[in-house]
UniProtKB/TrEMBL annotation:
Membrane topology: Multi-pass membrane protein
Protein name per its UniProtKB record: Type II secretion system F family protein
Sequence ranges assigned to domain Type II secretion system protein GspF in this UniProt record: 151-273
Keywords, sorted A to Z: Cell membrane, Membrane, Transmembrane, Transmembrane helix
Keyword flag Cell membrane: yes
Transmembrane segments: 6-25, 85-107, 113-133, 260-282, 294-313
Cellular compartments annotated: Cell membrane
Length: 319
């Protein structure tokens, strides 16, 4: 009873902590909107080359507030609520339940204190995993649409339309989620922010380098001139090849993912077969405290191995 009460309190504290962080982030959206409107005519100061041209290397080592660091760790971005397929409160509830269950069962193996700490860690990583899954799906959907968006801008510019109308055509004709993001870019331009700075904000939201390339193209063209349609056409070809290469890498990684799934499921398939052949051995595992500890240790090693294999596959894909 004491263990259950302790783990329940730990789960509630985890839920309250993460809920408070996200609530603070959402309450700051209105304040940031007022600041944007008030400072619409201000020019953002950014690091540039000595010649005054925008640099393709973005400054990423800036200091972030503590709240922003926590949200970044959780992979929750309050500026893009449309990426959340699962409501944030449901994500927190699922993570807290996973933490309570994991802490309850790990308490048998390591004790109440260690079980509560492990449950807290599992809750945080479960919340982070759900937010990261939604964010990655959202960014992948945008990444696939970028070549079509640049191609649409090229056709609009070659037809004689100005750059603003080309951006507006992307916001009007493409499907979501890129349509909403370019609509936000148009909103930033409407309140006085330069187009390249608005695209850099889009890059900060999605962390896609293609938008930084696009911002540099528009920044250079606004200062030096040149054939914008040809430059965008070359950029569209490069981005199209990057999309194709990413799809090819995912296809090649599918075999490794299948092998990881087989390795993950093989011990449990063997245990199921053993329960049908010799139920006596499996019954001892679940009725004996030592067997229960061995089951928990095996489950922990299986999850850890799956995470390591997944990290290796992701690392190989990014390289």
């Amino acid at each position: 009873m004491d263990r259950t009460l302790l783990l329940g309190v730990a789960g509630l504290l985890t839920f309250a902590l993460v809920t408070g962080v996200i609530t603070l982030a959402k309450s700051g959206q209105a304040r940031r909107l007022k600041e944007r409107v008030a400072n619409a005519s201000a020019i953002e100061v950014r690091t540039t080359h000595a010649a005054g041209l925008p640099s393709i290397r973005l400054q990423t080592g800036r200091q972030r507030p503590f709240l922003e660091r926590i949200l970044r760790f959780l992979r929750f971005n309050p500026d893009t609520p449309q990426e959340q397929v699962i409501p944030w409160w449901a994500t927190l509830l699922i993570g807290s339940l996973i933490g309570v269950i994991a802490g309850y069962y790990m308490g048998f193996l390591l004790g109440r204190g260690a079980g509560a700490l492990i449950g807290l860690g599992m809750a945080l990583f479960a919340v982070r995993g759900l937010f990261a899954w939604q964010h990655n799906n959202y960014v992948d959907a945008i990444f696939v649409q970028i070549p079509d968006a640049i191609g649409l801008m090229v056709r609009a510019i070659r037809a004689g339309l100005p750059v603003g109308e080309a951006i507006r055509s992307v916001a009007a004709e493409l499907a979501n989620p890129l349509r909403d993001e370019f609509a936000r870019v148009l909103g930033d331009v409407a309140i006085g922010r330069p187009l390249d700075q608005a695209l850099l904000r889009l890059h900060a939201r999605t962390e896609l380098p293609e938008f930084s390339f696009l911002a540099v193209v528009f920044g250079l063209q606004s200062q030096t001139g040149g054939n914008l349609a040809e430059t965008l056409d070359n950029l569209a070809d490069i981005v199209r090849k990057r999309v194709a290469m990413t799809k090819r890498a995912k296809a090649l990684a599918a075999e490794a993912r299948m092998q990881a799934g087989i390795l993950m499921a093989l011990p449990y398939v063997a245990a199921l077969a053993m329960s049908q052949i010799q139920p006596f051995y499996i019954d001892n595992f679940f009725r004996n405290p030592s067997g229960q500890r061995l089951v928990l240790i095996g489950l922990g090693f299986s999850v850890f191995g799956w995470l390591v294999i997944r990290w290796m596959i992701k690392k190989a894909g990014t390289d």
